[in-house]
Amino acid sequence: MKLIGNHTSPFVRKVRIVLAEKKIEYDFELENPGAPDTKVPAHNPLGKIPVLILDDETPLFDSRVIVEYIDNVTPNNKLLPAPNRERAEVKRWEAAADGLLDAAVAMIYESRRAKKEQSPAWIERQQGKVLRTLEFMSEQLGENAHCMGTHFSLADVAVGTALGYLGFRFPDIKWQESHPNLGKLFDKLMQRPSFAETAPRE
């Protein structure tokens, strides 16, 4: 398999973490989807990363689709339970984390526009989504060791990836201080090689 992505995209990182947890080898092809000569649209018509190219050259895109496929490739270290309420709750965690990331990435893109073209109201709206989702995550986590209670799952992968991206791009959002339980979870996750070795960087 080949993964197309880069070191800054949190959605690519989520996939890389799952590949590491499942102990699946792959080739990593660096691509900047915003570059004029990007090859990403040849594999994903949406022009987004990550894209996972299977051995038969079939491209998979959208991180949620990719991680679910990967989790079913091998039986070891299952990150998603069988279809039931618990699975729906894991996917809810993932939806919240991915939604937080969508809002955070939107803030980055807006801030990179010319100053006179930026919309402070738009940025404030996206930041509100981020802050509300952090509050939701903190309330749902409570004093649990992991998002789903006692065991590591895709929910932790998604939440840890989202928190890591905030630390990378928005250090002024002091979520560790506001939500110490999330900070404790994040510190625990960063002790796993899959998280430590995929930390975002330029």
Note down, in words, how this protein is organized:
The protein is α+β, with helices and mostly antiparallel strands. The protein is 52% helix and 7% strand. It has eight helices and four strands, in the order E-H-E-E-E-H-H-H-H-H-H-H. Strand 1 (2-5), helix 1 (10-21) and strand 2 (27-30) form a beta-alpha-beta unit. The longest helix has 27 residues, at 85-111. The protein is globular. The model has no long low-confidence stretch (mean pLDDT 97).
Write the layout of secondary structure elements.
Elements: E1 2-5, H1 10-21, E2 27-30, E3 51-53, E4 59-61, H2 63-73, H3 85-111, H4 120-141, H5 154-169, H6 175-178, H7 180-189, H8 193-196
Poorly predicted parts: none
Strand content range: 5-15%
SSE-based structural type = alpha+beta
Major β-sheet profile: 4 strands, mixed
Number of helices: 8
How many strands appear in the DSSP assignment? 4
Largest sheet strand order: 2-1-3-4
Rg estimate, integer Å: 17 Å
Q: pLDDT average, as an integer?
A: 97
The run of helices and strands is EHEEEHHHHHHH
Q: Which shape, going by the Cα principal axes?
A: globular
Give the gist of this structure.
With 202 residues, the protein is an alpha+beta fold. It has helices at residues 10-21, 63-73, 85-111, 120-141, 154-169, 175-178, 180-189, 193-196; strands spanning 2-5, 27-30, 51-53, 59-61.
